[in-house]
Write a structure and sequence with these properties.
Layout lengths: L5 H29 L46 H13 L1 H21 L5 E12 L14 E14 L5 H67 L5 H35 L29 H4 L1 H22 L4 E12 L11 E10 L7 H67 L5 H35 L13
Antiparallel strand pairs: 1-2, 2-3, 3-4
Helix pairs in contact: 2-4, 3-4, 4-5, 4-7, 4-9, 5-9, 7-8, 8-9
Length: 492
């Protein structure tokens, strides 16, 4: 009959229950992490004052389908093929946009770094340590070699149980920053495309001015020839010739000054599309068409259409998450550090059952006294959140100002354009009358030069007003966020 000693029986029971204890411990670890609370305030978007309607929207007509902003390439609403071709090159070659894209990729990668803390950090190692013990060490037995090699194949893990939500809040903050960076990228893209459109219309406006001045120079050359003929015939005075000559040269100088401004805008466009100015030339084409109607929509939509507002809101959410991170510092940090592996003094017996070793450690550490360090961090986080709320509300107010400014500019400039058109017609009629009187010998040439200056000034002003109307139109599109909406923010 075979019998087992009580001591052997207890050893067998312990060996049998050990895996259950380990499994129960691991299950408890998982449940503790999942059941943990998340300290800190829950994010709710603070209210911002939004008017029911735009003050300057006035009696704007309902937008026709062709008037609506393009959801992607909003500049196509101006129906300028040259502009469309230039705008397409920004996404490919603009270096400022590329830098902003890299910044977004950096922020998105940071989310992965933060999210990795939700999982254990596992490391593995293989070591072989030859050891020669001293033959003269205490308790050494006669003939003992004292040499051995320790082979160890180990796997170690380290894991923070996110009981209080510190890691989850950190991930939330990183995610909000990445989304804010994505909104920043959209805002940079919108600004660059708008800047290109502004430079394009300014350049085209200068082309119209240059065409007008060149036509006027040709007319003044004929007037000078006429005055010189009359002077040689004894009908006009030398003063008339001098006045005609001065008028002609002054207009030529204006045309040359326009060329200087045009070259600067041409260089600016080249840089925006990622080309050296020396490699870019834009064919002259005068500005002719007035701006299309841009429907402003509802003020409440602006919060969803402006990428800068969205970026401000996401940073507000990030600051709110950081408040939770700071508050979690008041609670103990719970860490688990399991380890397992194989160890033997002979490589031939390393991968055997008796060579197995394991351990499962747990530690909870908390700060008892830090002399206000955590309180200071918590106050900093709260102040940062309050600041982000103020920045968000200011962004909203500035956005409404941008829209109202450009709505007002478009409304008033349209009226001014009609008034200036009437002034141009009157000035042309005055010039025609004064020229007729001069040729009939009923007026001196000073009357003609005065009428010429007035007519040219009114024509230049009309071109400048048309340019400003198109600029205000582009700025209104930019103020409305282009075709962008918050639905385009990526989920990271």
């Amino acid at each position: 009959m075979i019998s087992a000693s009580p001591q052997g029986s207890r050893s067998m029971v312990a060996e049998a229950t050990r895996p259950r204890l380990v499994a129960g411990f691991a299950l408890g670890l998982i449940l503790l992490s999942l059941a943990g609370c998340t300290v800190g305030p829950k994010y709710v978007r603070p209210p911002a004052e939004v008017p029911p309607a735009y003050k300057e929207s006035g009696n704007w007509k309902q937008a026709q389908p062709a008037d609506a902003l393009s959801k992607g390439n909003w500049w196509e609403v101006y129906q300028q093929p040259d502009l469309n071709a230039l705008e397409a090159q920004i996404n490919v070659s603009n270096q400022t946009l590329k830098a902003s894209e890299d910044q977004f990729l950096h922020a998105r990668a940071a989310v992965g770094v933060s999210r990795s803390a939700l999982f254990p950090t596992i490391s593995a190692g293989l070591s072989a340590t030859p050891t020669q013990l001293s033959a003269n060490r205490p308790l050494t037995q006669t003939g003992e070699n004292g040499y051995y090699t320790d082979y160890v194949l180990s796997v170690d893990a380290s894991y923070e149980a996110d009981v209080w939500g510190r890691v989850r809040r950190t991930v939330e903050a990183s995610r909000s920053e990445a989304q804010a960076s994505a909104a920043d990228l959209a805002n940079v893209s919108l600004s660059l495309h708008a800047e290109l459109a502004l430079d394009y219309f300014r350049l085209r406006g200068l082309d119209a001015q240059e065409q007008l001045l060149n036509t006027t120079v040709a007319a003044y050359e004929k007037a000078l020839n006429l005055t010189q003929s009359r002077f040689h015939g004894g009908i006009a005075s030398a003063l008339d010739v001098a006045q005609a000559q001065a008028q002609l040269e002054n207009t030529r100088a204006q045309a040359q000054d326009v060329e200087v401004q045009r070259s600067q805008y041409e260089h600016a466009i080249a840089v925006l599309i990622g080309k050296p100015p020396a490699d870019f030339t834009f064919i002259e084409s005068p500005l002719m068409s007035p701006p299309p109607v841009i429907p402003p929509g509802l003020p409440s939509d602006l919060l969803e259409r402006r990428p800068d507002i969205s970026a401000a809101e996401r940073r507000m959410q990030e600051a709110n998450a950081n408040v939770g991170v700071a508050r979690a510092a008041y609670f103990p940090l719970i860490m688990f550090s399991p380890a397992a592996g194989l160890e033997s003094t002979a490589i031939s017996t390393l991968i055997q059952g008796p060579s197995i070793f394991w351990s499962l450690g747990a530690a909870a550490t908390g700060t008892l006294l830090d002399f206000g360090h955590r309180r200071g961090l918590s106050q900093e986080a709260r102040a940062d959140y309050d600041q982000s709320v103020a920045n968000y509300r200011q962004s909203v107010l500035s956005a409404f100002q941008d829209v109202e400014d450009n709505l007002a500019a478009l409304r008033i400039l349209e009226q001014e354009a009609a008034t200036e058109d009437a002034a141009v017609a009157a000035a042309q009629h005055s010039l025609s009358l004064s020229t007729t009187l001069y040729r009939g010998g009923l007026a001196n040439y000073l009357l003609v030069t005065t009428a010429q200056s007035t007519a040219l000034g009114d024509q230049v002003t009309a071109v400048e007003i048309l340019t400003r109307r198109l600029e205000a139109s582009v700025l209104l599109v930019k103020a409305l966020g282009g075709g962008w909406t918050t639905s385009q923010i990526p989920h990271v």
